[in-house]
Inverse folding.
């Protein structure tokens, strides 16, 4: 019998890498966080924002007062012609009706940065002038006969020698001249921080007229005011009586 020739098996071919397209790589999907309550997440987010953009608290009234005093001190160091300015200021006081009617006047020994109101002495005939002295956290006013009897006291400010026999109580004042770091034209006052005159003006039975004493450059439009701050009736500068 004839021998059948076996047919050769067909060669198998592997698909080339190019034949099957490679799947595109998908970006990883970030799953939402599930830990923590919504309130906690909100608080954490706010805290993070606060760290990135801090917001400073507004200044307090006391901080505003400190800054205003600083500005006034700096301005007064540049003041010139203190003598002529003081003369004009004192002339305005002497011409006022409250000065003419007053019998007992509370004055003060001015510092170098303040108007020299002791120029009023030649115009004080028939009046009793008294100066403050600091005692037990307050002011006692002692009547004196001449400004030269007022000497440097405990805080480097001129004050009278304390004599109980010559102390005049505040309810006997007719007029009080009030120093200050700054004033508004309508009588708001910024003191020097000790509160002495605020307590004096709040004394029960206090009836005297109150004149704020300062230079023109110490007049401001507005100022920080606290409940204990006391006003004056009007303010006098080298330009005369200020009208609010």
């Amino acid at each position: 019998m004839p021998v059948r020739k076996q047919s050769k098996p067909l060669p198998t071919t592997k698909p080339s890498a190019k034949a099957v397209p490679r799947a595109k790589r998908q970006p990883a999907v970030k799953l939402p966080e599930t830990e923590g309550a919504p309130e906690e997440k909100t608080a954490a987010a706010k805290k993070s924002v606060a760290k990135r953009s801090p917001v400073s608290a507004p200044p307090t009234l006391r901080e505003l007062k400190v800054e205003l005093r600083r500005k006034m001190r700096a301005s007064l160091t540049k003041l010139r012609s203190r003598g002529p300015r003081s003369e004009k200021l004192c002339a305005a006081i002497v011409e006022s009706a409250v000065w003419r009617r007053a019998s007992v006047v509370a004055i003060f020994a001015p510092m170098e940065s303040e108007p020299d109101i002791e120029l009023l002495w030649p115009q004080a005939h028939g009046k009793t002038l008294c100066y403050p002295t600091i005692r037990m956290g307050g002011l006692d006013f002692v009547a004196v006969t001449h400004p030269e009897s007022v000497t440097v006291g405990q805080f480097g400010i001129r004050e009278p020698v304390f004599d109980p026999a010559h102390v005049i109580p505040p309810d006997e004042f007719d007029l009080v001249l009030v120093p200050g770091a700054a004033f508004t034209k309508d009588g708001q006052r910024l003191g020097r921080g000790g509160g002495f005159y605020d307590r004096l003006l709040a004394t029960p039975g206090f009836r005297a007229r109150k004149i704020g004493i300062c230079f023109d450059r110490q007049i401001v439009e507005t100022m920080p005011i606290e409940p204990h701050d006391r006003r004056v009736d009007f303010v006098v500068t080298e330009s005369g009586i200020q009208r609010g």
Notes: The first helix runs from residue 38 to 52. DSSP finds five helices and twelve strands in the chain.
